[in-house]
């Protein structure tokens, strides 16, 4: 089941980049739709789509709209098409998978990749090179459709990784959504404080800068992500709070041994993260996947391995 006609719903950065990458991979026709006429115009000018077309009955439909719109749009696309395989690119999966209602034509997806730039003008055919691309096949998923989607994702240069939707959301809460929350907390803490007349932001060094790169990210995207993944994110915040309390206790007790072990553990974990997920990362912010891909079989490829779990540390 080769993908010859691709339809993209939402031609922003990710949607338009998928269009460019698909055309580079040899997809014969790419059409797009978007409520934003400027996005459609820019996607056409960039060559990300061949035409703006309301007819979505293609071999594959990729729904690339904001997270809050995904459940409704996926339901609409499934209802309005008869033959197309349907996937999405949202950074939360449980709600959209539930909205699909077990339709065998739907497979949830999430390329763990993005850029601080926005819109189709910044689309890049190489955005997905070696990036982890999560897929969430269900028991009802048509195996042939899953294999075709798996092959399509691979053709874009990405590494498909099968995972349960709830596990995906817990993983993203820890490795992507929590870092965004903490970056905002750190900057708002520093920005709201004064130390004997001194402004912390004016005295900030590289540590604060590096830890807050993702602070202030587009609220139109991130408010929806936080709310859609609220339960998993609250769990991650709770575990984070418990670990902060351990550090507070060590400081109160003057426990140098704990602090040394704690720093050493962090150094080991960072080396592992850089070796696994970012060994050759350049350019856009992506989680780099191992070339050991998950098997393209919906009945046998359900969850990601521990090695690929470490590859999900990039923010969208």
What does this structure look like?
By secondary structure, this protein is of the alpha/beta class. It has two domains: 5-167 and 282-309, 3-Layer(aba) Sandwich (Rossmann fold); 169-277, 6-phosphogluconate dehydrogenase C-terminal fold (Orthogonal Bundle). It is 46% helix and 12% strand. The chain is built from eleven helices and ten strands. The chain has helices at residues 13-24, 37-46, 70-80, 94-100, 143-155, 165-191, 206-211, 219-228, 230-253, 256-277, 306-309; strands at 5-9, 29-33, 51-52, 60-63, 85-88, 106-111, 113-114, 132-136, 159-162, 285-286. It has an eight-stranded mixed β-sheet with strand order 3-2-1-4-5-6-8-9, sandwiched between helices. A two-stranded antiparallel ribbon has the order 7-10. Strand 1, helix 1 (13-24) and strand 2 form a beta-alpha-beta unit. The longest helix is centred in the middle third of the chain and has 27 residues, at 165-191. Residues 298-316 have low confidence and may be disordered.
């Amino acid at each position: 089941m080769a993908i010859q006609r691709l339809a993209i719903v939402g031609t922003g950065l990710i949607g338009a980049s998928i269009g460019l990458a698909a055309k580079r991979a040899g997809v014969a026709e790419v059409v797009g739709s978007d409520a934003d006429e400027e996005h459609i115009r820019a996607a056409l000018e960039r060559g990300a789509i061949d035409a703006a077309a309301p007819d979505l009955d293609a071999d594959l439909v990729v729904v690339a709209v904001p997270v809050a719109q995904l459940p409704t749009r996926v339901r609409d696309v499934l209802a309005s098409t008869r033959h197309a395989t349907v996937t999405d690119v949202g950074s939360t999966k449980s709600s959209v998978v539930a909205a699909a209602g077990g339709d065998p034509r739907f497979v949830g997806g999430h390329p763990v990749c993005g850029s601080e730039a926005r819109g189709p003008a910044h689309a890049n055919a190489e955005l997905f090179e070696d990036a982890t691309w999560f897929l969430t096949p269900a028991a009802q998923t048509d195996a042939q459709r899953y294999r075709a989607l798996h092959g399509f994702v691979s053709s874009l240069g990405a590494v498909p990784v099968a995972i349960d939707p709830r596990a995906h959301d817990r993983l993203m809460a820890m490795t992507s959504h929590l870092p965004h929350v903490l970056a905002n907390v750190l900057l708002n803490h520093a920005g709201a404080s004064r130390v004997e007349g001194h402004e912390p932001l004016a005295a900030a060094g590289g540590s604060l800068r590096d830890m807050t790169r993702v602070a202030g990210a587009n609220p139109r995207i991130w408010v929806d992500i936080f709310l859609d993944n609220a339960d998993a994110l609250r769990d991650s915040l709770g575990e984070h709070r418990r670990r902060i309390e351990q550090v507070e206790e060590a400081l109160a007790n003057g426990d140098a041994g704990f602090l040394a072990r704690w720093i050493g553990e962090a150094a080991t974990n960072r080396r592992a993260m850089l070796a696994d997920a970012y060994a050759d990362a350049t350019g856009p912010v992506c989680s780099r996947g191992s070339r050991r891909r998950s098997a393209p079989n919906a009945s046998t490829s359900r969850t990601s391995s521990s090695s690929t779990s470490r590859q999900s540390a990039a923010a969208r």
